[in-house]
Design goal:
The chain is 79% helix and 0% strand. The chain is mainly alpha-helical and 140 residues long.
């Protein structure tokens, strides 16, 4: 006899969603803020020193963002550890419930929406870089 397992309740799915979303908000925030701040400074400093065009500077910045992403992705473990210290508990699901499509969908949506919100919040360094890029254009 196969025993049917009830699918997760809407409350459990909401718990799965937030359990996955909150660490990704933190990760998206840190990732985007670090990439914008460090990438802009690299572009402004190296671009001015080498006298390269704006397009070449943008290309160089894109290449550096890949390496910065690998550094910021290491922060994900710290963000998850902080979330668990703040009391973000693991959803109470059976192994079969955790493997159901509803649970996986809720987890993936939480991660996608969390990282999107985090990246949007992480764009705050852009508020401080408008003047420097205008000055760089005036120098050329």
């Amino acid at each position: 006899e196969k025993l049917e397992v009830a699918p997760p309740s809407p409350g459990q799915l909401k718990h799965v969603f937030f359990h996955n979303a909150l660490p990704f908000v933190g990760f998206g925030f840190l990732d985007n803020a670090i990439m914008i701040a460090a990438g802009t400074q690299i572009e402004l400093s190296i671009g001015v020193v080498l006298g390269i065009s704006t397009m070449a500077g943008k290309y160089f910045r894109i290449q550096n963002n890949w390496s910065l992403f690998s550094c910021s992705s290491r922060l994900a473990g710290y963000v998850e550890a902080l979330a668990s210290r703040l009391g973000l508990s693991i959803p109470d699901l059976t192994p079969k419930q955790a493997d159901m499509w509803q649970t996986r969908l809720s987890a993936h949506l939480g991660k996608a929406i969390g990282v999107t919100i985090g990246c949007l919040l992480g764009m705050f360094p852009l508020l401080f870089f408008g003047d420097e890029e205008e000055k760089l254009e005036e120098k050329k």
